[in-house]
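Dear support,

I submitted the protein below through the web form. The confirmation email said the job was done, but the results page showed an empty box. After a refresh the structure appeared. I'm attaching both so you can tell me whether what I see now is the final result or a partial one.
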Amino acid sequence: MVVCAYPDASQVGVDILRKGGNAVDAAVAVQFALAVTYPQAGNIGGGGFMVYRPAKGEPATLDFREKAPVTASRDMFLDAAGNVVPDMSLETHKASGVPGSVDGMVQAHVRYGKLKWAELVQPAILLARKGFKITARMAADLNSHDSIFRKHNPGKHYLLKETHWKAGDVLVQEDLAKTLEKIRDKGRAGFYDGNVADLITAEMKAGSGLITKEDLKNYHSVWRKPIIGKYKSFKIITMPPPSSGGIALLQLLQSVEKYPIKRWGYNADSTVQLMVEAERRVYADRSKYLGDPDFYKVPVDSLLNPSYISSRMQNFSWDKATPSSSINPGSFAGYESDQTTHFSIVDKEGNAVSVTTTLNGTFGSKIFVQGAGFLLNNEMDDFSAKPGVPNMFGLVGGKANSIQPGKRMLSSMTPTIIERNGRLYMVVGTPGGSTIITSVFQAILNVIEFDQTMQQAVSSKRFHHQWLPDEVDYEAGAFSPEVLELLKVKNYHMVPYGNYGRVDAILITKDGLQGGADPRGDDTAIGW
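What the results page shows now:
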């Protein structure tokens, strides 16, 4: 089964599985297909994380997160007075980190792939060259970004049309097809060297960006040791730093583990209060302690210590909300003080892949590489431009996530695989910036505690709290009027919010695979 953000890309993945490819082969093909069919977040100009659980053997995680260019500096987004320059980390060439997606797919294929590399890239080339019919939702996204594309891409014509896009229109991307052909024929060198590298650096020069040929040449994804923990009888396999998601997810699950939330019920007032208070403390810890482990000592063991997690949950009152202003990051003895997309895949052998990949904002920086046909990311915004100043998702940070040359920016991406009694149980993840962690948290609890099917779990209405700002955002219909009033009486600042997250997940049951494709998007589950 393949569950991802766009139906054509899901079909590409299933076709690879039918040809005898494994879950990693399908993941590579889906990644490139999404770069064509879902340019809002699918990419070759961004990065991401992969969690892999083989049917036999040890799980692994691959970090293909973008890196800061070598000429990046701590205060690069500040003006002479030390203030953050609005939008400089979002919609300029300087907003882009060195892309990691192509190298990541190459490394995943080298270690685990079965089919030939060219077979995995070719479907994306065909989609780009022949075109594909866009959905109504895609048409709306393209139309709503028309003016900003024109603003940042004078003389370029990517994703632009003289008339409005409409459902059923065919989107052809010839320059992107040519770039993908170079990747097909030359692998890593087809992107990080030669003509494509020339086009990237020429684009950087034209827009006063920072990425150089040396940055491209020196980029390498990293295999990291997974974060593994327990929730009741379930084994959680998830992503380590520079993702904050894995540690935060385990902290959240273990913070609520001893409470009878199954008895309280889905989105009951006590359930919500407990989850919000856990989120308040976990996001406070995130702001101080999480960053790139190659540059900063992340106290993983301390953050996941059961005694520490238990102590963090002892100072809240059932009678009223804990003000975020009274919550600080925890302390340890001896310690010195997203637009994104996700796909889940399971092959016939039981190998499982969970991948979250991103350009950061929707359509990244909105800037195309002239002649290469793909969008640049704006991942530099995921660094802390200045301690205590929020990024585009309202997240604050400090020294652990400050800008340094060659450093990977902190992420909330939370690709996760769950086992039950030694068997594969669930593959899950989502886009959504800072809401990723809480969306995955809720989807897991919806299945394990509230007996929802996988589709029900990803469709259910969600809520989110992240310490700062001190508010609880919620989707329409998430709470009954009675629950909403009870929470307001306890001084929770409840804020109606549009849809967020697009959880794509697979549940393994005794009767087969259940796909959960989020109805908030064009997400599609296809199995065979």
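Response: this is the final, complete result; the empty box was a page-load delay. Residues 225-317+413-526 form a domain with the Glutamine Phosphoribosylpyrophosphate, subunit 1, domain 1 fold (CATH 3.60.20.40).
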